[in-house]
Specification:
Elements: H1 2-12, E1 17-21, H2 24-27, E2 36-40, H3 62-67, H4 70-78, E3 85-89, E4 93-95, H5 100-109, E5 115-119, E6 129-137, H6 140-159, H7 165-175, H8 177-180, E7 183-185, E8 216-218, H9 225-238, H10 246-268
Parallel strand pairs: 1-2, 5-7
Antiparallel strand pairs: 3-6, 4-8, 5-6
Helix pairs in contact: 4-6, 6-7, 9-10
Length: 270
């Protein structure tokens, strides 16, 4: 999955990238490119319980919520670097086309905006922000924000085991009016989360109408690395904005048939 994601960023942009890692084995098979710098963040902080397992950890496991605190560690490190705009993108976020110019334009034309962030909001009375894709205007305000969110996350986990970075920033957004005024929520149609995959199917429900082409596709809302890879490949090889690859398309169709059959059988015997 990381290879797919990194290659999509290399292909769609000319920007430099920082990739944070905790173990050498995490990045041993990833692309070597002069635009990518790999940063060992395990030496920057010690978070109890975060590294108890070397296996893939998902959000159904308590360790995930300790591990995800390393996002703040990486962001705190980035505040020391000479970047004007910082875009944080999870390893399950595929870049379909570059959002960099649009994001920079928002910052330059709207001085009140300091953060642009993906959402998975479903109800108008409760905004749900997603740290899987977020852009920050670098500076002292960004540094203070990251420090505050990291501390809120650390303290929250002392009282409740399953608190993620999305929970932390969503609560902070809802509770701080001044912060809300500094945030631009990215449109879900062009910065979609995984549950919107069917929006981009090659066969349109109504002939002649097509969705806007996404900048990114975030393969969340599924649990486990194998399902995330299937979801990513469904967008890459199965959507109307994806790549033409006959072999991968056939493989994808077969894997989705198997997945649908499994879901049907589970429902049948519930």
């Amino acid at each position: 999955m990381p290879q797919l994601v990194l290659n999509s960023i290399l292909k769609s942009t000319s920007e430099n990238m920082l990739v944070g890692y905790l173990r050498e084995s995490d990045v041993s098979e990833l692309p070597h490119d002069p635009r990518i710098s790999y940063v060992d963040i395990s030496s920057m902080a010690s978070i109890e319980g975060a590294l108890n397992s070397s296996r893939y950890v998902d959000f159904s496991q308590e360790q995930f919520y300790q591990l995800v605190q390393y996002k703040w560690v990486l962001l705190e490190y980035v505040t020391t670097l000479d970047f004007t705009t910082i875009i944080f993108s999870d390893f399950d976020v595929y870049w379909n086309r570059s959002p960099v110019a649009a994001i920079n334009r928002v910052f330059s034309e709207n001085p009140e905006v300091a953060v642009q962030i993906q959402t998975y909001t479903s109800s108008p009375d409760k905004e749900e922000l997603c740290m899987g894709f977020v852009a920050f205007k670098n500076g002292s305000e960004f540094k203070n924000l990251v420090t505050s969110l990291a501390e809120i996350h650390r303290v929250s986990l002392m009282h409740k085991a399953f608190v993620g970075d999305d929970n932390v920033i969503s609560d902070y957004y809802r509770e701080n009016e001044s912060f809300r005024g500094r945030v631009r929520l990215l449109p879900q149609g062009t910065f979609p989360t995984g549950n919107l995959i069917n929006t981009y199917a090659r066969k349109n429900c109504f002939p002649g109408l097509v969705p806007y082409e996404p900048f990114i596709f975030h393969a969340n809302f599924v649990v486990g690395s194998s399902k995330k890879i299937k979801l990513l490949k469904t967008f890459i090889y199965g959507s109307q904005f994806g790549e033409e690859n006959a072999r991968e398309t056939v493989r994808l169709k077969l894997s989705l048939i198997i997945l649908r059959t499994g879901v049907f059988v589970k429902r049948l015997f519930k």
